[in-house]
Each structure stands twice: as structure tokens, then as C-alpha cells.
Amino acid sequence: MGIFKAYDVRGLYPEQLNAAVAYRIGFGFARHLAEDTAAPKVCVGMDARPSSPVLVQAFCDGLVAGGALPQFIGPCTTPMVYWAVAGRQDKAHGGAMITASHNPARYNGIKFCREDAIPISASSGLAEIEALAEGAPAPQAQWKSELRINLEPYPGDVPAPLGFDTAIWAGYVQHLRRFVKRMPEGLSVAVDSANGMGGAYLGFLRGLGLKVHAIHGEMDGTFPNHEANPSKLENLQELSRLVRDSNSSLGIALDGDADRAVFIDEHATPVGQDMITALLGTELLRRGKGGAVLYDLRSSRAVAEAVEAAGGRAVRERVGHSFMKATMRKVGCVFGGELAGHYYFKDNFYADSAILAVVEVLNAMGRASEPLSELVKPYKKYFQTGEVNFKVEDPEALFAKVADTFKDGKIDHLDGITVQYDDWWFNLRASNTEPLVRLNLEAASREQLKEKFEVLATVLGKSED
Asked: Is residue 249 annotated as a catalytic residue, yes or no?
């Protein structure tokens, strides 16, 4: 189909992903789950994109055709789907979120998980779902699903956002509050949810006693203000201004389906996601929650050093949520973090959650009674390029050349090629979708960073950035 990617389904609506395609994919997902369970129950949520309701209906029809029992939980965030699958007494056998995450409004997609919110990726079922979808029968009237959500009011102190299933929302808020330890009293925070599903969390944050200054909080899947991708610095400019103008102590940027978070300190400066990984990893180790913290291999060396200094075991993994979650489960890591802004929690079914990352950052600030800039200061020991793209037609040939050029370093191929020296290191990874390789380089000084980048550029050519 061309829309099945490494971790999910993603494509343009309606050219690539439309009702007919969503129906077939729903059928394939149902048949895939039915290999282990008769009549599997599947929780289905959606984001606010204009195309999402059409795709949800067709996808659920496909689930019914494939013998599954869909439970539509309404508009929600992706982490809410994980909770709906794994966190309730009446657990589901799988879940699907109709979303294209941070992609522009013309895109839509589907994220999948099986029981216990275990992700499904290309290596763990997506290819089979695609094959089964190709053999879906034509839709029939008796396979039509009836989508119902519970909109009855509930006596909670955090009202459900408009259109949200109130029972699901109430249970999810209860789950979130288990993570609240020590909130800073009366703290001002600035939030940009980019018109994505993270706007649902504004009432929850106010319920914690925070003074919330919000922009783009309306859930609007046309994304009228800016792209819902907090990894791009240009999408953080408005939030930085809001932090300054409102004299906030923390800025929070969320992506389209609210499974990623990026933080801005009280000086309106973005904080590296690996610095947040170091901070939260050491915080959770301090509570005695476990002995291992996972980090993606693009992260600063400061992460592993901080974890080990806190008495924990630092575990390095390749990029990608399915790899991160699998290793989290295998090792029993208490926490994990990726440079894309995904943060994973053992007590959250080993799944990622933007709002839980927010809660834990606030817990750290409350415990230490210090601003975020001071909390991450001990970890800002090195200098980094960030991710730099180079156009390369044959990545494997390039990796072989790099391995020969830098053969005096410590080399591994966990994800692309990583070369390490005592005082600097770099990783090169191939893009899954473009003829690019992505470089991350770290060094002990700014001068050394510039010097080593120039050395690498003679091998890699001119960067695309």
C-alpha cells in the first residue's frame, strides 16, 4: 500500500489513506489479533483532524468484518488509548489511534498496539496486517459498526473536554494523579498544545494548582497556527515569548497527538530532551523505582553518566518507540527517553506519555525548589551539533567508508554507525523515508565540536541543513 511505515500507517488523505483503505486495514488488524484471541476487543481513538471521523467509522467497520469488537473511546490523546487498552479492569486485546501525530493536516494515519499497550511495528506485526488487509472482503451491511461514546457528566473536578468519553477521561485522570508527588505551589506554566489533542490537559494542569497560560489550546486538526511538531525550533518561538511575557517558570510544547513533550526553561530557552531524560531518570532512581534507565543512542554522554552516578544502570538503545518499549520491558527499565521527546514509564505500561513527563518535571521542580535551568545545569557538560542531515544515495557504502576512516575509534552498528573516542563521538543513521543520513556529534568543547564537524564534512559532503 505504501503507507505502512516502520512504526505505523501514515499517508495523505484521501489520495493514500481513505475510507476504503481504512476499512481494509481494520479488517487486517482484526484478523491479526484473532490469531491469538477469538473476537478480540479493540479500543479505537482519534485526533481532531477533519478526516479522522470518516477513517474511524471505516476502520471500525473493518474490525467488525474481521471478527473484532471495536470500542470507540472518542477523541483522545494517543496515551489515552494505551491506558484504555491496558489500564482498566476490563482490558482490551488491542488498540488503534487514528492520527498522523505531528504531520500537516492533509495527512492522517493509524498507530497500533496489542494487549498491555505493546506496540506493533514493521518487525512485530505491521507487515502481516498489511498482507491481511490486501485480502479484505467487500463491505457488507451487517458489518456496520455503531460508534458510541459516553458523554454523560461525571462528578469529577476536571471536566472532560468537549466530545471526550467521560468515563474514559475520569479513569485516565485518576491514573495520572497517581504520579503526582510534589507540585510547586502557585507555579506559572506556559503551554502550547499546537491545536492538537494536548489541549485536553489544560484543565488537568489547572487542577494541580498551577497558573496555566495557554496558546493554541483549541483542538483543531487543521493546525491553523503552526505545525504540531515541537522538535522544530521555529515551532517553539511563540511559546518562548509566552514564557517571557507571562513570567512563567516552565514552558511546555506538545505534539499533535500529545505523546511527545518539549520543555522550555524559565529563561525561555528550550531544554534538550536528553537533558530531561537525565533529570527524570535520576529522579525516578532517587525514589527507588528501579535500577535501569533507557536512552536513545543520539543522547549526550551526560545521560549515562548521570544515571550511573545516581546508582542506576544506563541502557542504550536504537531510535524508535517500538525498540525502546521492547527493551524497557525486557530489562525492566523504570524510565526511558528519546531525543524526539518521547518519555517512557514503567508504571505507564512501559508506554510514552507527554503529560506524565510534564508531571514528573513538575515533581522534580517541587522536590528541589529550584528552576528547571538549575536542575539540568549539571548535565550540560558537552557540546552538540543536534541532528544534521546529509544527502546520501548509498548509506551502507558511506558507513563502510566512515568505519575505515575512523577505525581507531570504538565502533558499533546498533543503529547506523556510532564511533566513540574519549572526548568526542558521533552517530550516523539512515533516514527511513529520504535519501539522507543524519549526523549527531558531541564533543568536550565548542572548538573541538567545530573541528570534528569539519573533519566529518570532508567525508559526508555538504549538509542539507
From this structure: no
